[in-house]
Amino acid sequence: MTTPPFLTAMDEWGMKTTADSDDQTTIQIARFFSIVTSYKVCLTTGFIVSFIFIYLNKYRTSFFILLGAACTKLISTGLKDFFSRERLLVDSFVSVNGGAFPSAHMIYAVFLTGSLFILFSVYLKRTGRGILMVCGFLVVGMVGWSRVHLGAHYLSDVLGGFFIGVVWLLVMDFFITKENL
Fold it and tell me: Which of 33, 50, 79, 91 could form a disulfide with 62 if both were Cys (CB 3.0 to 4.6 A apart)?
């Protein structure tokens, strides 16, 4: 496998800075963040947020939130098949399957926190939206850390999943806000 020296150095740095396999508390925290950003949780949250928007008579928003949540799996699986990047050669603290790039958990985390931000930003003032956004970034950051810490991904897989998740969320947000233009 040929990777640019920068990616190799970044991935090695990520593995060194997050490696602490002896601390069971840290491993449990990392597992928690991996569990709460599984596809099942992402899709369930998408359904719940979608139904709330149906209740608010925002049918277009409801449709695109649900479509966005459902398609995160297709996007991550398709890209994993396309890139076919091998996973780390270390023992992982979680069961992993499929390719490494991009991190599906990151795509799910970005979409999940983004759709919750879209929902709650309707009701929050500017300061509340800023606090919510910071909390969302912290959760997404913890998910990224957890995936590297647990030995499931390289740092570049996590960053790739983050950027793909942001692009997908922006595409969905474009179609949602097109309703309000």
Answer: 50
